[in-house]
Amino acid sequence: MEYLNQTPVASLIFLFTVITSIYAFNDHTLYGKFMLHPYSVYRKNKIYTLITSGMIHSDWMHLIFNMMTFFFFAFTLEAQIGSLRFGLIYFLSLILSDIPSVLKHKNDFWYNSLGASGAISGVLFSYILFYPLSKLYLFFIPIGIPAVLFGGLYLMYCVYASKQSRDNINHDAHFFGALTGIIVTILLIPGIVPHFLSALVGGR
Predict the structure, then answer these.
(1) pTM (2 d.p.)
(2) CA 145, 180, 119, 104: dihedral to nearest 10 degrees?
């Protein structure tokens, strides 16, 4: 209840995403209704999937990884900036991260995308603006990496992986979700850029 009282938007997103994803694991018809289908969206059908595609995941690993990342950063961010601004960052990152995919795959009938990665990238990069030198830990690297360094490497990897297209991951959504998170945070939070630069110079 403490999370729900103090960070209601992050709490509801977390609970709803987990419940909806687990339901989809057991009822595959939900995938057809909720997945982003750029071919349809470009032709002004199933526009709602720009949001619903972020409520389902392909498998347990996909869900667990995204929700762990969300848990570590979203609740702190909402407590920092307030529920309204947090909600705007999350949902704008979710929607705008999918637009490049819609344009890129508008004529690819068989292409679909799902997952909250674009929105979570937006949350992560908004968090980085507030805490650029906080340490982030990856499963395969036991040493904490400064958040701002991780962010730079993450963006470069997204660009590289998108060009390679060797897996089934929508790296474009990751990249544009991150950019959306940065831009929306700058627009919503006066003084965030000076804060970010001061934190870097001051070693905080």
Answers:
(1) 0.92
(2) -110
